[in-house]
């Protein structure tokens, strides 16, 4: 029986062995979402928030909830979708994203690799002979920042959940990248820069399982599909590893996030002056090197 109202439970969130029924789960989920926004001061009144969407369960649940909250908290939203050009996958999720935005009445901006870089990701992989995610991640970050500025977003909200953040923290540990970890957290970045639009993660304390359950129970008309290149990433190995560990030792993911939040201010302070933010000589986007990663990869395209 649901721990709050005696109906049948549909999910057993962490630290709740009795579980929650559908309606109590919605309340629990939305309260956690709203509390994360207030606790970490993710959104200020009158801000214009860009919502980075892919057409998947996380980003569309995020768009739905921000749309629901915007009048109460007095902010506005617009959606931004990066079309990497992944045949059989992104074309399907774009359709879901378009329908969803239309239903909510949210303006959708679509930026494609083909227009911006010259080729879709499917072709870039063949030309560059690099791992898909290494190309994809660099260009996506680059385009999100560039267009967030052009569209006058104060911040960009992403659908990253607790599982995503745990994976990134571990990946940075495994690769000895504390400086990259310093830029993580519910609000990304170390210091303000007029050309760098900060990202916010309202699902920071919500697990992947909770978001999937929310989208499913809300009957959002979306396909629960995964990128075909996902099997080739370092992240997928870390994900499998931590999922197995969580199964054996429940609560591990929350412990990682909680201890990370404790040390994050120290990390941010430590790396505050480590790398001055410069601007890429070619594209003028923020970069720690003379030429940014996106321009460096672009120069290798034959
Ligand atoms: Fe891009 Fe890799 Fe994500 Fe696919 S799994 S969308 S290639 S980053
Ligand atoms: Zn550049």
Describe the structure.
- It is a single chain.
- This protein has 302 residues and is an alpha/beta fold.
- It folds into two domains: 1-38, no CATH class; 40-276, 3-Layer(aba) Sandwich (Rossmann fold).
- Helices cover 50% and strands 10% of the residues.
- It contains twelve helices and seven strands.
- The strands form two sheets. It has a five-stranded parallel beta sheet with strand order 3-2-1-4-5, sandwiched between helices. A two-stranded antiparallel ribbon has the order 6-7.
- Helix 1 crosses helix 9 (208-217) and helix 7 packs across helix 11 (252-270).
- The longest helix is centred in the middle third of the chain and has 19 residues, at 132-150.
- The N and C termini lie far apart (61 Å).
- Zinc ion (ZN) is lined by residues 280, 282-283, 285, 292, 294-295.
Structure characteristics:
5-stranded parallel beta sheet; globular; binds iron/sulfur cluster; alpha/beta; 12 helices; binds zinc ion; 302 residues; 7 strands; single chain
Range of strand content: 5-15%
CATH superfamily of the largest domain: HUPs
Order of helices and strands: HEHEHEHHHEHHEHHHEEH
Structural class: alpha/beta
């Amino acid at each position: 029986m649901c721990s709050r109202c005696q109906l049948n439970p549909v999910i057993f969130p962490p630290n709740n062995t009795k579980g929650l029924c559908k309606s109590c789960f919605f309340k629990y989920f939305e309260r956690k979402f709203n509390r994360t926004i207030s606790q970490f001061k993710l959104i200020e009144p009158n801000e214009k928030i860009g919502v980075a969407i892919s057409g998947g369960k996380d980003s569309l649940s995020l768009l739905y909830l921000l749309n629901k909250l915007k009048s109460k908290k007095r902010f506005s939203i617009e959606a931004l979708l990066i079309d990497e050009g992944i045949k059989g996958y992104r074309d399907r999720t774009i359709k879901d994203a378009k329908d969803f935005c239309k239903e909510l009445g949210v303006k959708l901006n679509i930026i494609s690799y083909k227009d911006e870089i010259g080729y879709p990701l499917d072709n870039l992989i063949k030309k560059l002979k690099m791992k898909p995610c290494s190309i994809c991640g660099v260009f996506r970050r680059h385009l999100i920042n560039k267009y967030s500025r052009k569209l006058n977003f104060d911040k960009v909200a992403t659908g990253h959940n607790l599982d995503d953040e745990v994976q990134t923290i571990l990946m940075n540990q495994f690769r000895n990248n504390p400086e990259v970890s310093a830029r993580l957290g519910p609000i990304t970045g170390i210091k303000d820069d007029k050309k760098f639009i900060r990202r916010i993660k309202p699902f920071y304390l919500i697990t992947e399982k909770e978001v999937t359950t929310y989208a499913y129970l809300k009957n959002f008309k979306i396909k629960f599909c995964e990128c075909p290149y996902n099997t080739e990433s370092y992240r997928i190995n870390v994900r499998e590893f931590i999922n197995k560990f969580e199964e054996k030792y429940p609560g591990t993911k929350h412990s990682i996030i909680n201890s990370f939040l404790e040390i994050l201010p120290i990390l941010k302070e430590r790396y505050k002056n480590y790398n001055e933010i410069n601007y890429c000589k070619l594209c003028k986007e923020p970069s720690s090197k003379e030429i940014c990663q996106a321009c460096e990869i672009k120069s290798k395209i034959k």
